[in-house]
Write a structure and sequence with these properties.
Blueprint (H helix, E strand, L loop, with lengths): L1 H20 L14 H11 L3 E6 L5 H10 L3 H10 L1 E6 L5 H8 L9 E5 L16 H14 L6 H9 L5 E7 L3 H9 L4 E9 L2 E9 L5 H10 L5 E4 L2 H6 L6 E3 L6 E2 L21 H10 L4 H5 L4 H9 L1
Parallel strand pairs: 1-2, 7-8
Antiparallel strand pairs: 1-3, 4-6, 4-7, 5-6, 5-9
Length: 313
């Protein structure tokens, strides 16, 4: 029995050592500070909130998925490293880490939790568990910056709006050219992403929009105003019945829809340097909408790092 306990201790210690000496998938691509006291000094000096990750390393598949998918998203990583002081606390270690867990009543061997502290160690926004999505983390980051009276970067606001938004709805518009459709409809406030395709024997632009920002009725009116609503296809039969417009409205049957080939998608920025960047679907939508008619506006949808990369090209 003693032999197996000793072997278990050796294996666990080896795992911890390996995790310290190489990048751990559970913590993503963020450059984390491991000096707790130093982080609070930096927070006070630079007037930045502290973003603390309590994480299990080595961790289960859920912890690894969080690190790989959420904490490795380029825009989220950029925002964490520039707008916050990022600190990592292991929730399955002894010593200093265990002391921090005890002080903040964080459970050991738990799923990941992100908390936001000011330089005095107080929570800026209430602790929340099970926030494990890009959109969820981005939204909490925005809330923290707002509560701290700090400017929220536009790209971070858009990231929060694009991912995991419960208000996103869908509609499709038929027009003479879906290249024009993606450009004109993508420019409308509240439109999150667009896609060129074919439906009902017509070229259509499929649109996903934030219904909290713009209603379906207003979106239809705006689309008609730029001559991109020869016919409207809504996502449910209830919407067909409730939509009041002089335009033709019918149900959008996804099974009969065909996505246009890649060469017909985001035609306004095809072949430009923008396509060399790692853009989100919302960035593609908005930049495609403005790149040909308002380059200054198009640039606002890029993060500072993306802008620097584009200038070097």
């Amino acid at each position: 029995m003693k032999f197996f306990l000793l072997l278990f201790t050796i294996v666990i210690s080896w795992c911890f050592l390996m995790a310290e000496n190489q990048k751990s998938i559970e913590v993503g691509e963020v450059k984390w500070n491991r000096n707790w006291d130093q982080a609070f000094k930096i927070s006070a000096e630079k007037n930045k909130p502290i973003l603390t990750l309590f994480q299990e390393v080595p961790g289960c598949s859920g912890c690894q998925k969080f690190g790989k998918n959420v904490l490795s998203h380029p825009l989220l990583v950029e925002a964490i490293e520039t707008e916050f002081v990022p600190v990592l606390v292991y929730n399955n270690r002894s010593g200093k880490d265990a002391g921090i867990l005890k002080k903040y009543r964080e459970p050991s061997w738990n799923f990941q939790v992100i908390r936001f502290f000011d330089s005095s160690g107080k929570d800026i926004i209430p602790r929340r568990d099970r926030i494990w999505t890009i959109g969820g983390v981005a939204k909490r980051m925005c809330q923290t910056l707002e509560e701290s009276k700090k400017e929220v970067p536009f790209y971070l606001q858009n990231l929060s709006q694009e991912y995991d938004n419960p208000n996103i709805k869908e509609v499709a518009f038929a027009m003479y050219c879906f290249w024009t459709g993606e450009m004109e409809l993508g420019a409308i406030d509240g439109v999150i992403k667009t896609e060129a395709g074919f439906f009902d024997g017509r070229e259509v632009t499929r649109v996903w929009f934030d219904s909290k920002t713009i209603s379906l009725a207003k979106l239809i009116a705006r689309a008609a105003g730029v001559k991109c609503a020869n016919k409207v296809y809504v996502s449910s039969k209830e919407d067909v019945a409730s939509t009041t417009t002089r335009l033709q409205v019918q149900h959008f049957d996804i099974e009969s829809y065909r996505k246009a080939p890649f060469a017909d998608q985001k035609r306004q920025i095809q072949g430009t340097a923008f396509m060399k960047l790692n853009l989100t679907l919302m960035q593609l939508c908005k930049i495609n909408a403005f790149a040909r008619k308002n380059m200054e506006k198009a640039w606002t949808y890029l993060s500072p790092t993306q802008q620097r990369k584009l200038k070097k090209r």
